[in-house]
Amino acid sequence: MTKFVALDAFDHRLIERARRNNLEPARVTAEAVGLSESAVLRRMRRLRAEGVIAADVALIDPGRTEPRIVLHVLIEMMTQDRAVMTAFQAAMKASPEVEGAWDVTGETDYLLTVAVRSMPEYEAFGIRELVPEKGVRSFKSMIVIREVVGFDPARRRLVE
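User: That's the sequence. What structure does it adopt?
Assistant: Structure tokens below.
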């Protein structure tokens, strides 16, 4: 079971600022949230130690690296058998095309975010991973035209 961490208003403000720019100097953060620099540093260390801040990562602007197509894929499984579901989840974790996967409720069982360089690459992914042998009954693909809310590299923060 997940252990929840008690957070106060300052913690929430620190998390929001870290979510937008985790390289912001502590003195700037301190001024913005109304704490001392040492309090900000202490709280940020605690948030990392307790796993609230799970990782410090870089958001890469994919438009600057290589052409790619992003798809959201809704997966309906043939069965809810735990072994089949676990095997499918492991396959998605191991697949380099899968950037995100969620076990969801409703008409579908999983929601995937898949990124490929071309439609033939997506076709190969589908033939390899989204097949009855892996427990998949059906899938529906939605190609992303443009990101509406996400990372804006020019502003170095999330778009609102």
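The chain has a mean pLDDT of 90.
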